[in-house]
Amino acid sequence: MGEVCDNGFMITRSEAVTVRAETKTSPTDQELHLSNLDQYFSPVVQTVFCYKQPDDDKKGMEDVGRVIREALAKVLVHFYPLAGNLTISSDGKLVVKCTNKGVPFVEARADCDLDVLGDITIPDPSMLTKLVYMDPAVTNMLEMPLLTAQVTRFKCGGFVMGMALNHCMADGTSAMQFVNSWSEIARGISPSTLPYINRSALRSRKPPIFSYPHGKLLKSDCISTQSSQGEIVYKLFEFDQKKLARLKKIIMEDGSISSCTTFVALTALIWRAKCKAYNTQQEQQAKLILVVDGRSKLKNPPLPKNYFGNVIVLTCCVCNAGDLMQRPLSYAVQLVQDTINTVDDEFIRSKIDYLEITREKFSYSTTLLVSSWTRLAFKAMDFGWGEPMQSGCVTLPEKEVAFFFSGAGKSKTGTTVLLGLPVTAMKSFQELIRI
Question: Other CB atoms closer than 10 Å to residue 97's CB: what's the count?
């Protein structure tokens, strides 16, 4: 059936076929018990990757769908839980039944060229949802596939690979591990890294020990102004190396900060600018949530480098809004640095123990959340037709979120920030971050 996107072009999908691991991977009754960090995040993340037809290769494009589908059957031998399905255990937790039920795979055609898509780094659900397969008849999370794939070919010869993956199975690093292994197999290469599937390394302690006030840190007690400022809009802000150098010079002018990372500098800048753009009352609390990859933080014992699952934790900065807006930018930088430095092995173990007792699920509160994707190896995803020319998410949470990507400006050596804010706040914000 053909589906017309809001901007006028049509995509025609074939019927979904079920792709299973091509060889037996595990006993059909095996269950994978997800960690508490996995339980915390369970939305379906939809991503798209665009590939243009190579200039020096005008053959073989008809085989794109077949090559990627056959490689999927092979990679599922190693990442076999993705072909299973979710269930609830007797103690009320999410568990994956490794049944090799399979992954829905769809081939599609678009009646236009790839350039119609424009810059897909900025989410456009009305268009991009057509490039990812989601069965509209299935709304219960336990009935949804853990993974779906769609390959859409365009008139110009390029194609888009769209993927929907349940976040409870993998964070960004693990998702890239999976897709890079998939693309290596598509090129006829053995996967360079095989996944460590067992999640027991992130079990809670007995008895659980709370070393930090996790609930208090993440509980939102800040007054929301979002509803009064209109719908959320997303914009890209590019910071090349010259802008980043100027920003760090400003931060270090008063001598209180001797050095800081690009992530910390940009996070402090947009946190303060967002607070000012909202005309926040000085007596209010300004709040910032940071997404931290815990892989390098875990020491006792360290995680296997090829661990497949969620290892991200959230931590929070809170301060008086008046101080944030009026004091030098170095003040915000120091707060961000100190907050990140609190995330160590004990913080993560304490968080896991806290989730064991509370069974808390993550929900975006009315504040700013910042996450860096600069280390995700999108460019390595070559299925045999070159690296993706661009990639992006179909949707983002409709709250104030910021994601950092590698590459900015002509040199592509800086950092690009994708940010969502209410319309009226965005107008002021753009002026406040000029460097």
Answer: 16
